[in-house]
Write a structure and sequence with these properties.
It contains no helices and 8 strands. By secondary structure, it is mostly beta strands.
Length: about 80
């Protein structure tokens, strides 16, 4: 797999949000609200990434062979 970008390559998590309300009137209801972050997955046997910067945030990158041709690599982890 080859990713060839003129600018930045961003591999980021996906944010899922949801809200549910249960009940029949204003005096009798429950409210459920949730925000969930799911990591992204990039899996390849041979991986080539070219670009200005590579930014990886809460993602999994797996490759048997990898070539990264960028000026800067930034890897961060977020609490899920």
């Amino acid at each position: 797999m080859t990713i060839d970008a003129k600018n930045d390559v961003n591999l980021k998590e996906i944010m899922l949000t949801g809200e549910d309300k249960f009940g029949s009137d204003g005096d009798n209801f429950n409210r459920f609200k949730k925000i969930e972050n799911k990591e992204s997955n990039l899996i390849a046997e041979n991986l080539v990434i070219k670009g200005k910067n590579l930014n990886v945030s809460s993602s999994n990158v797996m490759a048997e062979n990898a070539v990264i041709d960028t000026q800067k690599v930034e890897i961060t982890a977020k609490m899920m």
